[in-house]
Structures are given as C-alpha cells and as structure tokens.
Amino acid sequence: MEKASGDSGDWLVICWFDSAESAGEWARSRSHATWREYVGRFATRVEPPVQAPPAAGPPKPPPRWKTALVTLVAVFPAVLLVNVTVIPRVTGLPLLARTLVLCVCVTVLMTWVLMPQVMKVLGPWLRRGTPAAPPAPRPEVDPAPAKASTSISSTTTWRGLQPP
Length: 164
Description:
Layout: E1 2-3, E2 10-17, H1 20-28, H2 30-40, E3 44-46, H3 64-85, H4 95-127, E4 152-159
Antiparallel strand pairs: 1-2, 2-4, 3-4
Helix pairs in contact: 3-4
C-alpha cells in the first residue's frame, strides 16, 4: 500500500503476480471478493486514472551539416573581429600567447554574445525536421520480485483508506 500522491487522500493497493493467469485467478477468487468487500466498508474505490501516453524523450539532434553551418555563421565573425581588433595589440607576444588570447576572446564572444543570438534566429530552422526521440523506457521497480521472469501488477485506488 502506498500514497497515491503527496496531498491526495488516495491510497494505492498494489498486488504483484508472477503471471497474467495468477492475476486473473486472484481477481476471480473468493478471497479477492472478500477483501474488496471488507476494504469497501472503510473506503471508496476510485477507478484507476487514465494513463497519459508517455512523454516523448529528448529531441533528436539536428543533422551535423546544419550544426556545422550554424557554428560557422557564429565563429567566422567572432574570429574576424578578434583578429582585426585584439590581435594587432598583442603582436609582441609569442605565437602561443596570441593564440590563447584569440581563443579566450572567441570563446567568450561565442558563449555569451553570438550563439544566443544565432540560436534565436536559426534555432527553429536547425530543429525543423528533427522528430522527437521515442519515449525513454521506464524502469520497472518490483519491490517483491516474482519467481518467474515476468511479473504483473494490479493497482486499485481507494479514497479514505488509512494504512495500518
């Protein structure tokens, strides 16, 4: 038995079975009918909620050629700007230091200035035609693993039922 959600007065009664046949036998048994009648004296049965389809997984990445083109659209002006404005001021530094200055300036421009603007403009085009990935499989948590390789669960929701 577990609480359906944080604020809800609903409780879930979850029964695990080793097969669909065992679940069917339990549902048709006198023990199940007696149990439902007993619990029904203290609580109201609520029909299980309709399960919404699983949310789509993360979107698939765009084609690499689109990613490369968008990157080039942002990198080229950044490198040109730094080569024209910053590099002439550091010509006395060794090649390694000038390259470091170029990389730091371009990285800062790309991260905080250019790519956010480029993505605002080209983002819809970049994502167009890339379908969402299929839903990620949900891991099954079985608190009492069945002896068989598969297990079936049956969930009934009751309102007003208090756990022991």
